[in-house]
Structure formats: structure tokens, C-alpha cells
């Protein structure tokens, strides 16, 4: 693809590195930004820069946050006895969009995948166990809301083993309203909401 400007070519190159963005789409975006008001392009650049350099992670649940503790963990109206364990921040967003869940979260930061070299020590599992076993813990139930893939099931099994001996803490999994091999972020809100409400409690 030939470009009339090296600056446009560089912009297209950077935009096309984003997931799901090919070079043709990147070119359309670059040309749109070029024709837009200067303030529009500047605001976009500023928002992206602030997001990248100023965003942090919650000290409790490891979700993305604007402060040391995220808004969900800091919310006293949420049910802190109920912790939903997910692999990714996108899953938090997906579950929150159902409007069915009023507890708090714990973000693992991925799933166990030996093929990709990801083991339990690479995830936020120890902090979950510490959170559940703390003397002042309010935790009464852990919901394993992990995508039902082979890696997801392996991770859920490992977590169940780590948490099963904790007194007064029940372990449950979301109901299989999510298809096998599916990803939570792509599930429709009704299916995902029912999966949370109709979760299955493990023995």
C-alpha cells in the first residue's frame, strides 16, 4: 500500500497493530482523524496517554482502577462476602453489564496454560487465597466465573483444590449457560446474567 505521506504511513502502521484493525481500516481511521477538528485528535491522544500512564490496578482485586482501590472494592453497598473470580478485566465488565451481580471480584490476570508457559505463580492466585484466609475476611462464597475452555477448567480445578479446606467458604461455579469453548466477554447479557444467578455450588 502506497502512501502520499510518511506521517500517514507511520500512523497507519501504529493503528494496524491494534487487535482487529487491518491496514485498510487503519487508513480510514487515520484519514478521519486528519480531517477531524484539531481538538478532537488532541483529546483522543491525551485520553490514550493518560490511560496508559496513569491507570493502576486495585490492591485488593487486581482490576483496573483510577486509585489504589477500585470503585467496586471501595463500595460499602456491595456484598463483600461474595467474590467472583475471573481471568480478565473484560470479564468484570461483561458481568457488571448484566446488572445481576452485587458482590466483588478477584481478577487472576489470565489462566493456567502450560503450552504458553503460564503457571499458577504467574497469576493472582496466592493473593486470592490470602484474601480468603485472612482473619478479618468477610468472604463466605467464591464464584469461579472462568471461561469453560480447557485452560479455564484447569484453572478452576486448581483454585478449587487451593480453596477447598478453608472453613466457612463455599466454592461455586457459574452455571453452564456459557457454551463450552466460549469466552465470557462474547456471551450475551441474558445468558451471562442467568449463569451468575443460577450458579452451581460444588461439594
Automatic annotation (TrEMBL):
The organism's place on the tree of life at top rank: Bacteria
Q: Which UniProt keywords apply?
A: DNA damage, DNA recombination, DNA repair, Metal-binding, Zinc, Zinc-finger
Q: Where are the zinc fingers (C4-type)?
A: 58-73
InterPro entries on file: DNA_Rcmb_RecR, Rcmb_RecR, Rcmb_RecR_Znf, TOPRIM_dom, TOPRIM_RecR
Q: Which GO terms describe its biological process?
A: DNA recombination; DNA repair
Q: Where are the transmembrane segments?
A: none
Any keyword Zinc-finger?
Answer: yes
Question: Has UniProt tagged this entry with the keyword Zinc?
Answer: yes
Q: Which Gene3D superfamilies match?
A: 3.40.1360.10, 6.10.250.240, RecR Domain 1
Q: Name one GO molecular function term.
A: zinc ion binding
Q: Which CDD domains match?
A: TOPRIM_recR (cd01025)
What start and end residues bound the annotated signal peptide? Answer: none
Chain ranges of the Toprim domain = 81-179
**Family of this protein:** Belongs to the RecR family.
Q: What does this protein do?
A: May play a role in DNA repair. It seems to be involved in an RecBC-independent recombinational process of DNA repair. It may act with RecF and RecO.
Q: What is the protein name stated in its UniProt record?
A: Recombination protein RecR
Q: What is the lineage of its organism?
A: Bacteria, Pseudomonadati, Bacteroidota, Cytophagia, Cytophagales
